[in-house]
Amino acid sequence: MINCNPETVSTDYDTSNRLYFEPLTDEDVISVIKREAENGDLRGVIVQLGGQTPLKIAAALEGEGIPILGTSPDAIDLAEDRERFQKLIQKLGLLQPENGIAHSAEEARAIVDRIGLPVVIRPSYVLGGRAMEVVHQITDLERYMRDAVVVSGTNPILIDRFLNNAIEVDVDALCDGTDVYIGGIMEHIEEAGIHSGDSACSLPPQHLSDEILAEIGRQTSELAFALNVVGLMNIQFAIREDKIYLLEVNPRGSRTVPFVAKTTGVPLAKIASRVMAGEKLASFNLKDLDLPHVAVKEAVFPFARFPGVDVFLGPEMKSTGEVMGIDRSFGAAFAKSQQGAGVDLPLTGTVFISVKDEDKQAFVEICENLVEDGFKILATGGTTDALNAAGVPATRINKVMEGRPHAVDAMLSGEIQLVFNTAKGAGAIKDSFSLRHNALTNKIPYYTTVSGSRAAAEAIRALRQGQLGVRTLQDYLADIKR
Fold first, then answer.
1. Which of 23, 152, 205, 410 is deepest in the core (most CB within 10 A)?
2. Chain centroid to CA 29: how far?
3. Residue 460, SS3?
C-alpha cells in the first residue's frame, strides 16, 4: 500500500505486507512499483480503492507498462471526460440536467441564457466541490466569474441546470463484465445541491417507489456494462417529478462503500478486489437483500474548531468525518446518527424558524408535529404569517437587521433550543450568517434544509417515545434473510 497519510492505517496496521509513506505522484508511485517488481512477478495495481487521486495517475502507470487491475484507464477516462461521457449518455438514452462548458464570462452568460437559472457552477478538475456554487441570480453569476476562479482554455467552467427540490441518490455497485450486483441504493436526506460528502443518507431509501428503484437498478447495470467496469462503481442520480437524472459516475469505490458494507454485511471491497483479480461475481452467491433495519450515515463537521466559518451547507464539501446510526425505524436511526455526530437534539423547548418563501409550505407539517410534541414556535415575520395562516401557532420575532430584541438575543438568553434556517442566494445566506454562527457557538442544533429539518423532527419524536435501544451490529445483520 502506498499512502502519504499514515493515519489511514494507524488502526489497521496489518492491512498490507508493506506500507510506503510516499506522495501519490506519478514519479513516486512508479518508482515504488518498479522496486516491488524486482521481488517477483508483478500481477497489477489496484487504483479503485483510494478515491480520485489514484484514478488520475492510472494513465501514467499504464504508459510505463504497469498493469491496472479492474476497470481500464480508458474506461476511467470515458467516465471522467465530460464530452466523451455526454456522448455515451445520449447513446444510452439517459437523462442529464442541461449543461454547458464555458471558457469565458461571455460563454457562461450564453449558457445560462440557454438553460435558465438556477445553475450549479464549478471549475473543472477539482476535488470536494471546491469553488462550486449554486447560482440563483445573474449578479451572482457575474460575481462568480469575476472573483471566484481563473477561467482559461485548460480550466473551463462547468455549468449544469440545478434541479430544485430533487432527491439525490447514491448507488454503489459491483460489475465483472458479465453481471452487476447493486450493493446499496442510498437516499440523501438533504436535497440535491448539498455535496454528497456533507449529506446524510439513508439505506434503504425512505421515499422512493419500487418502480423508481427498479429503473435506477436498470440504469446502473447499463452504465456498468457501457463503461466496461470491472470492480466497484458509484453513481449519483437526482429524482425529480418521477424523472431520473444522471449526475455523476465514478468508476471506483466511493466513501459510502464502508457504510453499505456495514449495513448489509456484504464485504464489497473484498469482493471487488477478487473480481479485479479475475474472479466472477457468480461465485459469491450474492442476493438482493430486504433489510429489516434502517441505517443513516451522517457527516461530522469541524465548525466548532473554526469559529469564523459558515455552517450553511452547499455544493462545496465541509465535513471531515462520518458516523452511522442503525435501528428498526428511520426516526430512531437518524436520532442515533445525530448523537454520534455530537448533535444533542432537544426533547422540549422552543424552535426558531426562518425559511425562504418556497419552503414555507413544507414547514407547516414539520411545525405541526413539533407543536404536537409540546414545542413552541418562534419565527420571523413572513414565516410566522405562513404558519399562522395554516393554523400552526407561531410567535413573531425580529430578524437581526430589524432591530432588537431579535432572534440572536433570544438564543443568547437561552430561549431557543433548535434552529431551522433555509436561505437562497448569496445575499440572503450572508444576511443570516450571524444566526447560524450564534447557534454554533451556543451549541444549539441547527438544520439548513427542509429535509434535514423534517428528519430532525422525526428523530425528536423517536427520542421522546424512548424508542432507542442498543444492539450490536452483528444482531442487526443476523436478522437479514439471505
1. 205
2. 30
3. helix
